[in-house]
Amino acid sequence: MWGFLKRPVVVTADINLSLVALTGMGLLSRLWRLTYPRAVVFDEVYYGQYISFYMKQIFFLDDSGPPFGHMVLALGGYLGGFDGNFLWNRIGAENALITQSRLMLLESVLIFFNLLAVLSYLKFFNCQKHSPFSLSWWFWLTLTGVACSCAVGIKYMGVFTYVLVLGVAAVHAWHLIGDQTLSNVCVFCHLLARAVALLVIPVVLYLLFFYVHLILVFRSGPHDQIMSSAFQASLEGGLARITQGQPLEVAFGSQVTLRNVFGKPVPCWLHSHQDTYPMIYENGRGSSHQQQVTCYPFKDVNNWWIVKDPRRHQLVVSSPPRPVRHGDMVQLVHGMTTRSLNTHDVAAPLSPHSQEVSCYIDYNISMPAQNLWRLEIVNRGSDTDVWKTILSEVRFVHVNTSAVLKLSGAHLPDWGYRQLEIVGEKLSRGYHGSTVWNVEEHRYGASQEQRERERELHSPAQVDVSRNLSFMARFSELQWRMLALRSDDSEHKYSSSPLEWVTLDTNIAYWLHPRTSAQIHLLGNIVIWVSGSLALAIYALLSLWYLLRRRRNVHDLPQDAWLRWVLAGALCAGGWAVNYVPFFLMEKTLFLYHYLPALTFQILLLPVVLQHISDHLCRSQLQRSVFSALVVAWYSSACHVSNTLRPLTYGDKSLSPHELKALRWKDSWDILIRKH
Amino acid sequence: MPPATGGGLAESELRPRRGRCSPQAARAAGRDVAAEAVARSPKRPAWGSRRFEAAGWWALLALVTLLSFATRFHRLDEPPHICWDETHFGKMGSYYINRTFFFDVHPPLGKMLIGLAGYLSGYDGTFLFQKPGDKYEHHSYMGMRGFCAFLGSWLVPFAYLTVLDLSKSLSAALLTAALLTFDTGCLTLSQYILLDPILMFFIMAAMLSMVKYNSCADRPFSAPWWFWLSLTGVSLAGALGVKFVGLFIILQVGLNTIADLWYLFGDLSLSLVTVGKHLTARVLCLIVLPLALYTATFAVHFMVLSKSGPGDGFFSSAFQARLSGNNLHNASIPEHLAYGSVITVKNLRMAIGYLHSHRHLYPEGIGARQQQVTTYLHKDYNNLWIIKKHNTNSDPLDPSFPVEFVRHGDIIRLEHKETSRNLHSHYHEAPMTRKHYQVTGYGINGTGDSNDFWRIEVVNRKFGNRIKVLRSRIRFIHLVTGCVLGSSGKVLPKWGWEQLEVTCTPYLKETLNSIWNVEDHINPKLPNISLDVLQPSFPEILLESHMVMIRGNSGLKPKDNEFTSKPWHWPINYQGLRFSGVNDTDFRVYLLGNPVVWWLNLLSIALYLLSGSIIAVAMQRGARLPAEVAGLSQVLLRGGGQVLLGWTLHYFPFFLMGRVLYFHHYFPAMLFSSMLTGILWDTLLRLCAWGLASWPLARGIHVAGILSLLLGTAYSFYLFHPLAYGMVGPLAQDPQSPMAGLRWLDSWDF
């Protein structure tokens, strides 16, 4: 682990001769025996899957981050000749190829871009002092923006570092504004350049990632259902195959399927079937005993409804078709049973405060049909808008009771085949997705006879009109869904809480050899972790001390040393804070590897503090030598620990249970020991 | 606001120099405010005119206060039935009067005050407060409503004084007062038995006293300085004691104090001893005093609520032993667990409850169709289990057998007393937490299979020890699968009677969810011991009740498909809350901000950010501002900044909260936002008037602007007042409705 973090140390210790050597060592430690183990390790099971999707150009959705990271990995796989036909379904399966980094996870890529962003900002800041607007000034400024957007594009965690860089840049810009030696125009140019490089470029790049992503994955895939009908219709295969060629405008006589826009707990379509509501429910309440109306999460011929004009009897589209507009009165006739959608003042089966929705059966018991609905197009441009397939989001308001057709989200009991309950909501408060529907499949009905119509309902749609969704619409929907997507069950054997990270009370077992006890763990070098935390504490205390003294006009440090100390702290301690603290507010499942970006910054702080102590706090030569000796001792102990834990990092050596137990330094570490 | 006031304003200089502490001279030393002070008092008023001004000052304050009280107390008794959350807070007031213990997610002060008000006004605590809409009939409820309205009425004068102190401008203060007086939302929220008026009272009191002590900074350690400083502390304790939202105002005062101390520390003319004195004074008044008061409210709370009540089950067994009427109170039970004992098992995680089973099966499709096992918060016969040996079925209570104690590490069986089924687990997924195993009741008359065997373990103890009632923290490990018995804390659907899910978790991480203790223990063969030793100390009680409250707060998660309010809805007044009534024949009250006020506030925030940043950049560039403009900029940046900070602190944290949010959570922020509006418009209009100084009517711009804002708000209140005072009649779409044509957003439903 620590070898892997070697390179960053060099960055702030300023460039010296050992740079090349250390980089070489860092690379060596990371690439050494990279192809081992030839098996799928931990989360690679997911990321590998996503890469396969890229290869096959199938649409997918992942809530962990934007697509750039996946694309980088996919590119690696592509260059390596990976053809996407390997099934990433089981941890431990043999694999032909391990790509790019040691563990094909996104963290290392993220850290790379995080550090690149900070480094290039520092470079830029140095250029600012002597040669603003020079070529290298521009280069480093742009690189900062690019690195930031790459970091954000890999994981949303990258936003933290982006915010940090923006914050530091804003403070520097504020000083620039206060610099009265510069002309107004000059200041303006400076600000403009920064705004372009640090705001515009990242946004454009971010959009670009999505653009490429959406171009690459244009086929339908397993996550289609989460997206809206319009989005699905833009994917090749899937819904597009069905909706391609549907008439756009819904007319009286149209046959449609209606999908609930909210789609929770599952996406579903308005549905009805022969069965009726039970006369008496389990809790003793009565029902109307009319035909059930439900929401059904699968495609089915019983999902088809016919939009009927209440003033006419026919169920076919007249020629020319008469489109349905906002505010029109309609009846919805169930295609297979020709009963119409009805609601009345009877309590719904599971939500007694709402009205029951049924398909009306005339029992001749003085319960009249109440089957008139007023169509409201929610996203209408004007009040005379036409109801459009897929694009229009509509509400059905019951004319007699002004109840709104709504998906309650509850599952009906066995008599309703565990389908979802549909109710008439009387107190509808504003817009909510569960009361909004859109037409997904649509065709103009042509058969008068019921028998013929049934055949028609079973056959796929014919007519041909095509539509496309603009990139921005697709982007905003995809982005929105990614942010809103939540994995429900959030417990994992190796999940941990942020507090455990600092003290390294947790680890993650990535891989275990199928036969021997060789294994790979995500486990930190405890010396490095402790000294990182220590450095942070020392930095905080020293800063507080200096600040208080300066306030009383005692200047311990020369001005430029002080400024360097503050800047280094702002970037390193700040980087640690922004990458760590937000996790306390998150409710998702957290793992040790979420701490790695923060840790990197903490380790960057280490040499800063060491250097500072040696330069400013060691008064005599003797103290200085003692201090150097301590540093060397510390360094060798870190090397020693790293070497001891090596078998768990590389997984190349099978250890005996006794040796493994000896490595279990903390009770909370979960090291796998085979029972024989 | 009647126009006469505005007229009076125009004549007086609009800038009285009042207040016991000289206001602007604060921190005159380091900061360049001398010029401003000069600019703000062009001539020294004569003695007579000063007296006149003072009288005018008091008259205005009295007028503002009077108007506020009048609007709040108007039709306070309507509707004579329970509105919205009165059902909770009224009920809790009754609990205090009846002295029964209950549990709520908020600290006790607010409800205690409501209870006190009810008690003093002759309410006897017998009304049940069952659900909104219940008629009060003969019960006296006006005392409680009156108390809330009384505190709610003080918001306006407090805001008035705060703005006056921050801006030194009567017109800004008047504008703020008008915005708040004429806001239907503030009005509605102040008229019912709710925590919000009490909370907002303390928040505004803290803000006012903080501003006051800031302006006493030139005379530190004087009597008024001490007075305002300690009053700040008292108000902070009050705010936190009502709701945890009070933390935000604490944060604001804290930031202000840190800045203040930082400034003093940098003042080299002060010795370190003086700085130390300043620090000590603040620690005493702003940390020690509030903490002591806050703790005191809890002490009173626990003292008053000494009887067992509906909140018992939320608390640990030891806690319950304090409450008279609880079966643990003054109880004596056998100390060590033995085979054959009848026990109840309580989860150590707060608000999970007792291990429970009942004669209902898991429904089809959810694991095996065996008897449900859940956790249940209330005491019930179905919580009783018999502890038995795993391998014999003989009755251990048979007097011929010797007593055998259960020891750490024993293999046991838990038999449900009412249904004689064994606690059982197997490789079926649990109903809600799919990664855990299902726990069921299995077997007939105690005969089951090897999946009924559990190993009982005491946490952190050696094998072979006996197990103590109440004090041993135990775990049950399923022998066959190796999983641990726990409760996930998730609420089961209707088929499970909305009790909590019990699972067997294969992850052996030690969490409180899988640790239990034995609470009731019946075994006739064993001697009983008294439980008085268990009585927890006050700090323990305090800590425990806070843990329960925090957990309760984060447990208020929105249910699927529920209409919830999002924080971004609030400032735009997107949706109100229905306090009372639905249909056109009902008496309807609808909590909604006066849209004119709210949208003006929203616009003002944007305008403030714009003008504030222009001024800040100009100053950073070293622009030389004329004295008048510099003074106004100071007001805008300092005074406005304080208030903006308040708004930020009371609004943005809600974005991070996972719990259910409601519209009324925005009202503290709205108070700050209204103060900002007052300061901003007054300053902008003054700047405008200054910019057009060559124009003859320049001064008029300011007066006309303020007047039109005042009149506009008053008129909008005239339009929207039925929302707050209640209305009967058709809904807004009907032209006959009192609100006809006023439903400007579709999302408002009235």
UniProtKB/TrEMBL annotation, chain B:
Q: Its Enzyme Commission number?
A: 2.4.1.109
Residue ranges of domain MIR in the record = 334-390, 403-459, 464-521
Q: What Gene Ontology terms describe where this protein resides (cellular component)?
A: cytosol; endoplasmic reticulum; endoplasmic reticulum membrane; nucleolus; nucleoplasm
User: Top-level EC class, please?
Assistant: transferase
Per the record, the GO terms for biological process are:
basement membrane organization; dentate gyrus development; protein O-linked glycosylation via mannose; reactive gliosis
Q: Where this protein primarily resides, as one coarse class?
A: endoplasmic reticulum
Q: Which GO terms describe its molecular function?
A: dolichyl-phosphate-mannose-protein mannosyltransferase activity
Q: Where are the transmembrane segments?
A: 52-70, 142-163, 194-213, 225-251, 281-305, 596-619, 639-656, 701-720
UniProt xrefs under PROSITE patterns: MIR
What this chain does, per the entry, is described as: Transfers mannosyl residues to the hydroxyl group of serine or threonine residues. Coexpression of both POMT1 and POMT2 is necessary for enzyme activity, expression of either POMT1 or POMT2 alone is insufficient. Essentially dedicated to O-mannosylation of alpha-DAG1 and few other proteins but not of cadherins and protocaherins. Transfers mannose from Dol-P-mannose to Ser or Thr residues on proteins.
Its name, as the record gives it, is Dolichyl-phosphate-mannose--protein mannosyltransferase
